[in-house]
Amino acid sequence: MKLEIPEQKKLVHEMRIPIRWGDMDAMGHVNNTIYFRYMEIVRVDWLDSLKAAPNPQGQGPVIVNAFCNFYRQLEYPGEVLTRHYVSNPGRTSFDTWITMARAEDPQTIYAAGGATTVWMDFPAQKSTPLPDWLRSIVEG
């Protein structure tokens, strides 16, 4: 099953991630599990920049699903240029989308993925409405 990245989305964060030798598998390219790690790194970096990291005694984001489409192989050495987008704010959730390119070839997408993020009240163990400040970022 292949999910497509939507046209309507907002770029909120960009970062470069070094491809490590250990990211590769026996076939000589970045292992497919590492692409999910790259998406996690850029998503957490964005959330940290907003001071929105999960707080076990309060509220914060959780990922309820994730996917990745692989278009071309990434290989060591190099840097992955990740671009993080958001869209579709709901009452308690929003979608995130991430594209991955080589830093020296930023127009060629090597992989793209996404996740649904739900805002949680951790002590209550249930979703809670998105804070207004976050909603304004996602909607803007």
What is the element layout, followed by pairings?
Blueprint: E1 10-18, H1 32-49, E2 59-70, E3 79-87, E4 93-102, E5 105-121, E6 126-127, H2 132-139
CATH topology call: Thiol Ester Dehydrase, Chain A
Number of helices: 2
Tell me the number of strands: 6
Look at the structure and give the mean pLDDT. Answer: 95
Sketch the major β-sheet.
Answer: 6 strands, antiparallel
State the name of the first-level CATH class: Alpha Beta
The amount of helix comes to 10-25%
Instruction: Flag low-confidence runs.
Output: none
Number of domains: 1
Q: Tell me the name of the CATH homologous superfamily.
A: Hotdog Thioesterase
Please outline what is shown here.
With 140 residues, this protein is of the alpha+beta class. It contains 2 helices and 6 strands, in the order E-H-E-E-E-E-E-H.
Describe this structure in words.
- The chain is α+β, with helices and mostly antiparallel strands and 140 residues long.
- The chain has a single domain (10-139), classed as Hotdog Thioesterase (Thiol Ester Dehydrase, Chain A, Roll), CATH 3.10.129.10.
- Helix content is 19%, strand content 42%.
- It has helices spanning 32-49, 132-139; strands at residues 10-18, 59-70, 79-87, 93-102, 105-121, 126-127.
- Strands 1, 2, 3, 4, 5 and 6 form a six-stranded antiparallel beta sheet that branches.
- β3 and β4 (93-102) form a beta hairpin.
- The radius of gyration is 16 Å and the shape is globular.
- 24% of the residues are buried.
